Amino acid sequence: MRYVLPVPATENPPPPSPGADPRPGPVPGQDPRVQWGLSLAVVAVGALTIRPMGFSGQGLAVALLFVLNSAALLARGVPENRVPPRVALTWLTSGIVAAAALIGVSGTGTSYLFAFFLAGHIGYRLETGRALALAATCSLLCAGVLYFHLGPGDPELPWVLGLATGVPVVVGILNRTQRQAVRSALSAAESAERAARAEARTAVLTERGRIARDVHDVLAHSLAGINMQLELADALLDTGDLEKVREANNKAHGLVKESLKQAQWTVHALREDALPLLESLTAMVESSGHHDALTVTGPVREAPAQVTQNLLRIAQEALTNAARHAPGGRVEVELTFTAASITLRIRNRPATRAVTPGVGSGMGLIGMRERVALLGGSVGAGPVTEGQDQGGWQVEAVIPG
Fold it and tell me: Nearest-CA neighbor of 216 among 288, 312, 317?
């Protein structure tokens, strides 16, 4: 192997690596059981403290309003996707009217808690503009009932308490904003996971296609030649020319050995722990019987695994074709490293021994072009028309990177 302009080898680090239910699901940190617990606690405290309650007169009015407030408060636990926005607005508006009426009718107790909790849920359930407007309405209603004493309610409750009933809307808005942010983050994470899974599936399919191409390149050439020789031997048996039968049989055996060698190199190139490009290419060229045929130019560097595998496969295809179509001809392999690309050039001189007729698959050059196209490179193949190698054949692959 000859080196031109030797430069100390450097190693480049590999590039960094780059997968639903429309109903809103539970948000981490917001347990619906807590909401149910608070609602039930308010209802329980109200049942124990709000007076009077009965079946006639003021007691009946208080009891009915208490049931309406309890229903409006417990409805907070209904999932959002089951309550249309208009229904939610109607329900919450009715709830604050019932809460203000209960404050005005009840004589004692914690009737005002219903207004506070409903205002908080208004901020959580409705969009900001409507929530602020409805919360302001709640404050004005409750404050007006207490300030103007619109009912036989508790005269000791200050009207400022009614005015404050709309303040919890701010807490509800903050909770809603946090919930939306968490859901957006979860949705983005799920989208990224789906994209990663899709990318992984694409990579698997691409790898399957590459392996199928490798196996085809080995089997199509080799089996076609073996089949032809066996058919020739079978036809010669009828003529009784055992010498030609033996010759065809020997050629078939030679093709089998060559196929085994190609299969070994294919498996070698498919392995994750394949040797570096330069070492692998050197071993391949020398095992094909061409010593000191490899010339390396430019600063040697390690190529990505996919580039190495495809360059080795192209070299294998070119060396196999040279051995088949130009037996005895000298082969020269050039590997050139530049800052922008890696170039592999394989040139063979004309045959010096008799060429055995054979049948190819016609897929060799197509396979090379497919490999290089996947890497954004180019490949060319054709006869040498000038120089000392005139009459020979050259394959040149250029891969960026």
Answer: 317
Label residue 62 by pLDDT band (50, 70, 90).
Answer: very high
Radius of gyration of the chain (CA): 42
Supply φ then ψ for residue 275, to 5 degrees. -65, 160
- Residues sharing a CB contact under 8 Å with residue 120, sequence separation 6 or more, in sequence order: 168, 169, 171, 172
CA distances for 157 relative to 4, 62, 113, angstroms:
98, 17, 13
- Distance separating the N- and C-terminal Cα atoms of the chain: 24
**What is d(CA 265, CA 257) in angstroms, rounded to the nearest whole number?**
13
Mean pLDDT along residues 3-28: 45
Within 8 A by CB and 6+ apart from 378, the residues are: 372, 397, 398
> Distance (Å, rounded) from C-alpha 314 to C-alpha 311?
5
> How would DSSP label each residue in 94-142?
HHHHHHHHHHHH-SBSSTHHHHHHHHHHHHHHS-HHHHHHHHHHHHHHH
CB 110 within 8 A of CB 63: no
Q: Say how far apart CA 236 and CA 223 lie, in whole Å.
A: 20
